[in-house]
Design the sequence.
């Protein structure tokens, strides 16, 4: 997915994260976030040089320190 920036346009990366099951179920899934951010970058005519994602382990309230 790496893309060399040959024009003077802005080059950016996308970082997405889901840290709760609720976020994933309410339209904030990693896939949904990536699609929204790709659309935004396209609208702004930005080059995307990479996409980073992180799905955090969901910890139940009783498991927290």
Sequence:
């Amino acid at each position: 997915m790496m893309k060399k920036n040959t024009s003077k346009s802005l080059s950016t990366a996308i970082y997405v994260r889901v840290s709760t099951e609720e976020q994933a179920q309410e339209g904030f899934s990693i896939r949904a976030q990536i699609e929204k951010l790709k659309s935004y970058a396209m609208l702004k005519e930005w080059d995307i040089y990479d996409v980073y994602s992180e799905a955090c382990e969901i910890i139940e309230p009783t498991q927290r320190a």
